[in-house]
Specification:
By secondary structure, the chain is an alpha+beta fold. The chain is built from twelve helices and nine strands. Helix 8 packs across helix 9 and helix 10 packs antiparallel against helix 11. The longest helix has 21 residues. It starts with 9 loop residues before the first strand and ends in a 13-residue tail after the last helix.
Length: 331
């Protein structure tokens, strides 16, 4: 089986699960799919992505044949119908699978990337929410092809520097993400313990910013987003108070996490409380590419996102925590 050097072969599967699936079903499905390729990433609640680039030579089959094999084995072992799609990138495979009925297979050849993407409605591009879709259509950008044909700087003026670049790349089919066989964490937690029981609300908020800054970087590094935030405050007498809140939209940006944490802290209504520790927990994690980000016309927020990307780059180079927001440092 001929394979072009550097070309990836990915399979996206969407399982038609029963209303109340067995708790171990996804684990069992992962083990079954790993008999085809070790590079299997489960995408709860009902999907999986397989990188079969290296498995093609072993099986002497192309990606489409391996996708059909996965469908047959899933049906034989678990009685599930499965929609499948093959493509050279995670984004294309996911988009194609979303359009594929259970039991069917869609194949996107690398040479067909443009023809698949360009006529699709712009709202179908991962990362575009209803508000952003409305803005783009107001400017006459109705299809993904329209967005791809628009100069990058124009898109960035409309959507902000970071979001504009990401969506412009996706409109051209560019997606370098890799399959991560490691189990996806369902939550992420960070705790700050004060050196002494702390009365100062300013110190409390400073700790919340440091915690959300740490968790945001962790989520961005693992390409995840959180849909719900929980904070737990432990007091001098060891009692605790917990509050949780769903985010307006799943996010991994520190500004969004910090804003939600501040809202939760404010709802506690603490009056000179002696706080021993604060814990922040990100829950309902999902693949960041599956999250939609609503449009922001706030230039200050857009500047924060640009700075966030620069800080992430420095921390990846010199180590986590090397560069942080100035407000997280004590003074």
């Amino acid at each position: 089986m001929n394979t072009i050097l550097g070309q990836r072969h990915l399979i996206h599967l969407r399982f038609q699960l029963p209303e109340q699936p067995h708790p171990d079903l996804l684990t069992d499905l992962k083990q079954l799919l790993e008999q085809i390729t070790p590079k299997v990433q489960m995408l709860p609640p009902d999907s999986a992505i397989l990188d079969v680039t290296g498995a093609i030579r072993f099986w002497e089959r192309d990606a489409a044949s391996l996708a059909r094999l996965a469908q047959l084995r899933t049906a034989a072992h678990h009685g599930l119908r499965t929609a499948a799609a093959t493509a050279p990138t995670l984004m294309l495979a996911a988009m194609a699978c979303a359009l594929t009925p259970p039991g069917q297979l869609t194949t996107i050849d690398p040479t067909a990337t443009r023809s698949f993407l360009r006529p699709r409605p712009v709202r179908e591009l991962p990362g575009i929410g209803p508000r952003t879709a409305r803005l783009l259509t107001d400017y006459g950008l109705h299809t993904i092809g329209d967005l791809a044909d628009t100069p990058l700087l124009t898109v960035q003026r409309l959507l902000g520097a970071s979001t504009g670049r990401t969506l412009h790349d996706r409109a051209h089919g560019r997606d370098l993400r890799a399959v991560n066989p490691q189990p996806t964490a369902r939550s992420a937690t960070a705790e700050h313990r004060f050196p002494h029981d702390e009365l100062s609300p300013e110190r409390h908020r400073q700790a919340l910013l440091a915690l959300t800054d740490h968790l945001g970087y962790q989520l961005r590094t693992t390409r995840q987003a959180t849909a719900r935030l929980t904070i737990t405050v432990r007091y001098a007498d060891s009692s605790t108070t917990t509050r949780q809140q769903a985010l307006a939209e799943p996010s991994n940006h520190t500004t969004n996490l910090a804003r939600t944490a501040y809202d939760l802290y404010g709802k506690l209504g603490l009056q000179r409380a002696r706080v021993r520790s604060i814990t922040v927990r990100c829950e309902q994690l999902l693949d960041a590419a599956r999250a939609t980000e609503q449009l922001s016309l706030d230039p200050h927020r857009n500047n924060l996102l640009v700075a966030e990307g620069a800080i992430d780059a420095l921390n990846r180079r010199f180590g986590p925590g090397t560069v942080r927001s100035a407000a997280t440092y004590g003074g």
